[in-house]
Design a protein that fits this description.
It is a single chain. This protein has about 240 residues and is mainly alpha-helical. It has 3 domains: about 30 residues, no CATH class; about 90 residues, Tetratricopeptide repeat domain (Serine Threonine Protein Phosphatase 5, Tetratricopeptide repeat), CATH 1.25.40.10; about 110 residues. Helix content is about 60%, strand content about 0%. The chain contains 10 helices and no strands. Helix 2 runs antiparallel to helix 3 and helix 8 runs antiparallel to helix 9. The radius of gyration is 22 Å and the shape is globular. The N and C termini lie far apart (about 60 Å).
Length: about 240
Amino acid sequence: MRMTIRHVVLVSAVLSVGSFVYMVGFAPMNEAVYGRAGAINQTPGRLALIATIRRSLAQGQLSTADRMVEVLKKHNPEDTSTLYYRALVDRMMGREDAALSSWQDFEEHMSTLTSWPRRYSEMELDYYRAWCKAGIGEIELSEGMFRAIADRLELQVANGDGVVMSSGALYNLACYRAMSGEISVALGHWERAVELGYGLDGGWWAVDPDLEPLHDESRFWEIGSGMGRGERNGDALGGVEDE
């Protein structure tokens, strides 16, 4: 059949209607990107919002991170990660009173939470509990909790419980050991993680609060900058604080 202008117009119209129906009825929409998402009762993805928060923090865009936390809180008010990022962003923005209040709210939440099947593992919940203690100033207790998490992870690897010493596992160990005050051990894990190809996650490593205890160590920055990402100061991440 010969294709005429009339056919082209008809096909284009059908495709346009199909695309509109898909966008309105089926396509997931992130409210952070599409303002009308909320108007048609679409919920932004939790993980996508967390990724945006982390990326904004890595780029020094604290105001954007702050706004995205509020979107996360709107749609996931009782989620453990929501409370964590609310406290974390308050802390990184220098809001001392707000940060303490956020950590206290988070600590109260975690004290009553025993499990969260299919979303958080027992180790992840223990990680958040350890951060709660650090946030409210119980540093010694927090360090002991992070040390216990690291010991447990290493034991799982040694016993072959489905956990391998990948670059990601080594990065996590660097975080836990740093937060437990074991600086030299943490640096060793960090270096090995990068050697094994750890993806530097858009510069998140340079602002990751888990690794802050390593920031006074020049070796930490040498390892990271050797991969072409990050420096000791935020400017090298390419981020500019937004208004």
